[in-house]
Design goal:
Blueprint: H1 2-13, H2 19-30, H3 36-46, H4 51-56, H5 64-71, H6 74-88, H7 94-116, H8 146-167, H9 171-195
Helix pairs in contact: 1-2, 1-7, 1-8, 1-9, 2-7, 6-7, 8-9
């Protein structure tokens, strides 16, 4: 779902028309999930672990679970958004716009994750609480409406790609819209295979 989180941030940043906000929105959409890339690469290619072990054991161990708590902290991103909003009153520099777009998009990502993780939720209130919310809806688990959500996400991704293409003329965003569209088509294909029992 990372690409969908980025798309939402870009739709919000579109009104500013500023490169700092656009870049912040892209990176903010990635931030809560970014630690998964080095985790998988190190665990798989350096430690020789398979995907089952990575997601059932390694992900919940040190240091990855600790990094995940920080990367998915709602209070942390809210604090950053507050700092950025205050800084925008004092300066016209690019970094407050970048930080505000980054933190708002990350907050939206965290919020959607809060509502769409059933058995694999994050600690969204670090450092104040280690509470993990078990949502009745999952973006991937079939036992928690994951197949239906796959269709919804794929359709939403295609709509977002079309809207983003019309809003932005720059190569960076338009490249992303193409990737988003392709991933959405792939998601729709997988959902169709699962729904009709061809796969899984």
């Amino acid at each position: 779902m990372t690409q969908s989180h980025i798309a939402i941030g870009l739709l919000i940043a579109a009104k500013s028309g500023r490169r700092a906000a656009i870049t912040g929105a892209i990176l903010g959409g990635i931030a809560p999930d970014f630690m998964m890339v080095p985790m998988v690469l190190i665990s798989s290619f350096v430690l020789g672990q398979d995907m089952g072990q990575i997601w059932s054991t390694t992900y919940y161990g040190v240091p990855w679970w600790n990094i995940d708590q920080i990367a998915n902290s709602g209070p942390l991103y809210a604090l950053l958004a507050g700092v950025a909003a205050l800084a925008m009153r004092q300066t016209q520099h690019w970094w407050p716009r970048f930080l505000l777009a980054f933190s708002i998009t990350a907050l939206l990502h965290v919020g959607f994750d809060f509502l769409t993780h059933a058995t694999d939720g994050h600690i969204h209130f670090w450092p104040f609480s280690d509470f993990v919310f078990a949502s009745p809806v999952s973006y991937w688990e079939s036992a928690h409406h994951g197949r239906l959500f796959g269709w919804i996400e794929a359709l939403s991704g295609l709509i977002a790609a079309a809207v983003l293409w019309r809003l932005y003329a720059g190569w960076l965003v338009r490249t992303f819209t193409v990737i988003l569209g392709l991933l959405s088509v792939l998601g729709a294909t997988v959902s169709a295979l699962l729904t009709f029992g061809v796969w899984g």
